[in-house]
Amino acid sequence: MSTYSDASGAIMPLPKARRATGFGGVVPALAFVAIFFIAPVAVLLLRSVLEPVPGLGNYAQLIGSATYLKIFANTFIVSGLVTVISLLIGFPVAWALAIMPGRLTSVIFAILLLSMWTNLLARTYAWMVLLQRTGLINKMLIGMGLIDKPLALVNNLTGVTIGMTYIMLPFIILPLYGVIKKIDPSTLQAAALCGANRWQCLTRVLLPLAMPGMAAGALMVFVMSLGYFVTPSLLGGTANMMLAELIAQFVQSLVNWGMGGAAALVLLVVTLSLYAVQLRFVGNQNPGGR
Amino acid sequence: MKEPFLQIRGIRKEYGPVVAVHDVNLDVRRGEFLTFLGPSGSGKSTTLYILAGFETPTKGDITLEGKTLLATPSHKRNIGMVFQRYTLFPHLTVGENIAFPLKVRRKSKAEVDSKVKEMLRLVRLEGFEDRKPAQMSGGQQQRVALARALAYDPPVLLMDEPLSALDKKLREEIQHEIRRIHQQTEVTILYVTHDQEEALRLSDRIAVFSKGVIDQIGTGPELYANPRTRFVAEFIGDSDFISCDLLSSSDGQATISLGGGSVFNHIPVHGKGTSGTRAALMLRPERIRLSRAQAAGAGLAATVSDITFLGNNIHVSTETATGEALAVRLPFGHEAIAGLSRGDIVHLDFDPGAAHVFC
Amino acid sequence: MLLNFDRLGWWKYMLLTITVLTAAFLLLPIVFIAALSFGSSQWLIFPPPGWTFQWYSELFADPRWLESAWTSFKIAVIVTILSVLLGLVTSFGLVRGSFLFRDALKALFLTPMILPVVVLAVALYAFFLRIGLGGTLVGFVISHLVLALPFSILSISSALEGFDKSIEDAAVLCGASPLEAKIRVTLPAISHGLFSAAVFSFLTSWDEVVVAIFMSSPTLQTLPVKVWATLRQDLTPVVAAASTLLILLTIILMALVAVVRKVLKQ
After folding, report:
1. N or C, which end of chain A has less CB nearby within 10 Å?
2. Which residue of B40, B72, B86, B163 is the best one to mutate when testing the A interface, meaning the one whose CB has the most A CBs within 10 A?
3. CATH code of the domain made up of B6-232
4. DSSP at A289
């Protein structure tokens, strides 16, 4: 912006000194990002249509093979499950946080932030141990008499889903909390006065008002889950691969850059499309805001 | 002829198609308090920023004590400035703020310390050296800003509406301070404001800005008694305007006729007008004579539309036969007021020498 | 009424229960690992039969663990310095500049934050292989810098936007050159943004796994890679010890950030 308002509200152009630092400042970062981000990614994607021979052969292979399709399916299903479960748990928690008394809120927040910022490997490792056959979870379930034999909770997609939900929960709760906090309580009070009972208030007023926040959070979690590498690889075991690990395998183990690039492009396209959808339809809404 | 202190010549500033300053010419005398007065967008702030070095003019020059200023970057111009917004350095104490320009000039510690004390005494904030800006009120912050701007004895101090963020009472208090400091330090001050009362209270001379040019420069009384453009007449003090017919104009004096046939001679005239055209007659409300007597000589008939008591003045709103509104100000106890009420017909006239015609 | 905690009736207890359970769920693994790191069972039986410091001494005695930690630290420090410097210069351009595509450019700079890291990791891996920087410190630093820079730009831009430029102008009129004014007046005023940028950049690099997996070589490994490689083989409690130390680091840094931000903002 190159104008400001003076005391009487007129729009004044900013004096020249304020415009002098312009493009020069961003040049170093721009060059850096162009060379070490845009170029390498572009090259990778190009290789998907150039190796081993020019054409869409790699993509045909991806779509044609049952194995690869299963991996795509697994990835989408797990991501979808994680998103839904996170939403189901996250919404009540965000709601509670938005209206609870202050001291309890601070404690929960601290736990949320600690969980988010703690090393990913440490957290994933914890689940690897917890979900073992001889792990704590199984022990507790057997001890409580709910099951006879230990469940296979890890080295499969169940473990991945549990682990990913754990990781993603804060990413749903925090933005949702922000959205609910901004809703004017009088809106809900008005609904009650109009005669709506609690359930009706929830489904007809609160949920719709929180919907943009839920959609945004859900989209973010879904996209993140699609591309996640660490947790699915460790908790899923070698037989249950997800998309990110597939890309890694193409490149590291099989040194097949064409296929690796193709799978990466698929992931990238899906990611960017979902973001575009979000920008278009969800955007930055402030429902019933104060 | 004394060498001019600060000369502003032919300054023009364009922002693309927008011309913020058309042609500003000004001679500032050493030690005077000169105000740039005008509405927003009139070019007064832009001119000030050109002086400070934050803008470069499209055309024109500025010389200070004979040397051109435009080639010097802002930080070497040695000019002091107090901004509209509070611009104290938030991470430094009051004392460190004032010391800043001196430290930048590599002055010795002893010099810095003594100057800081002197400045704090000047703005009457002794003992505030270790406070942080966040702990001080708006008025106090601006006083520190003033102390900081004067710490390095600049030849010129620029002030860009420094009091507009303060409430009325505080504003008057600090206006008083500024005037006192001006007398004590004898620094040349260029002050920008849109508040004519503030300008009249503070300045030696006022330059009235309108649409990128200076309409008129003069002392308060000069501008009030002899405005040279309609804009200046309207901007400074209250004014009444009556449309009239210009009968003749020569040597700066005009003969006009008001509706109803009254003719007035020897009225100071401004602007070029040919006989037979319409013009505007300007009168100050307190220079209009109001009487109940009918048509005793040249003048104008009007109907009283409202009477307001304002303490030592009575404000009588009237309306002429042609529908123009004229306000008349009479001292309390004036003979014409007794028994005056809405709807009464009164006779208005004036001394030609106190009026002005604008073409 | 739904947004008033006391008026919810029995729903209040349901919400509270879900929240407390979720908080416990989030906290459980972290506490569990810390407890486990002191347990004497090699097979991570919980509750452990005894308590011991053995895993920690194994951790500190193993030169490969210490080396990887040192490598991580070196890289993180260099990345932090470069990220803050580059972020600072870029933020000035983005916040103060007025040129075409400025908003698009800001979005571009933030993109590495939202794209799947594996794509970036693989792309950079190929790129560095080609120019011979694979498995080198330089390669690591550059890759981590790409990931850390968006955080830096976000933090510093935000602080800079909240800073009134007139204050910097006042410094210039006081006699400071534009550069001097920025260093003496603006930088101290946005120091909380610089600090946030530093912490985020450090953590981004320190915790980074995916890119590191591809960048690493047998002679150059970061701590996360060592953990990853170890986990692929077995679940030794030494990893629990390492994890606990990492958790401790997070807690300390979080507390530090909270304290410093409060102090600097005054």
Report:
1. N
2. B40
3. 3.40.50.300
4. B
